[in-house]
Amino acid sequence: PENESRNMIFESARISRGKMRELSTVKTSDIDALIIPGGQGAALNLSDFLFKGVNCQVEKETKRLILEMIKAKKPIGAICIAPATLAKALEKSGISAKLTIGNDKDVAAKIEQMGARHEVCSVSECVVDHENKIVTTPAYMMAKNVGEVWAGIEKLVKAVIEMM
């Protein structure tokens, strides 16, 4: 139901079938890399980009962790719509990250308005920003099936691991 309240920690644990913890408890020294999933859950909870576009706000702990990972020179992967959250988090940092959400011209223009550089990318590929240690892939921004999503995300994960 639309007016049902949902708990991100509970939902994440249910989907992953694992233990979750609050983002506020995660430190960059705890992790080697950060991969930000996309999809509606991420789009609605990590920022309000879907509703406010370039005037959006990134959830406080999400922004903190992104900026700390960049400062620590640790790799970040962002999938589907998550690169928009990444662009906003980096907006006033002086970092112009190279990102992709695929070939959606409207979202790409908004990403560029927030100071990032958008690169068109096929669904089965990823864009690697070696300078900033950021990897992005379009996933369901373009995908017609899970196989296409798998190919791009697999390449993203491999690229993130190579940067560690």
Average per-residue pLDDT, rounded, comes to 94
Can you identify the CATH class? Answer: Alpha Beta
Strand content: 5-15%
- Structurally, the number of domains stands at 1
Known CATH architecture: 3-Layer(aba) Sandwich
Q: Spell out the helices and strands N to C.
A: HEHHHEHEHEEEH
Structural class: alpha/beta
Describe this structure in words.
With 164 residues, the protein is α/β, with parallel strands linked by helices. It has a single domain, classed as Class I glutamine amidotransferase (GATase) domain (Rossmann fold), CATH 3.40.50.880. The protein is built from 7 helices and 6 strands. The strands form 2 sheets. The protein has a 4-stranded mixed β-sheet with strand order 1-2-6-5, sandwiched between helices. Helix 6 links the parallel strand 3 and strand 4. Helix 4 packs across helix 5 and helix 5 runs parallel beside helix 6. It starts with 7 loop residues before the first helix and ends with a helix.
What brief labels describe this structure?
single chain; alpha/beta; Rossmann fold; two-stranded parallel ribbon; 7 helices; 41% helix
Note the topology.
Layout: H1 8-16, E1 34-36, H2 39-45, H3 49-52, H4 60-71, E2 76-79, H5 82-90, E3 98-99, H6 105-113, E4 117-118, E5 127-129, E6 134-137, H7 146-163
Helix pairs in contact: 4-5, 5-6
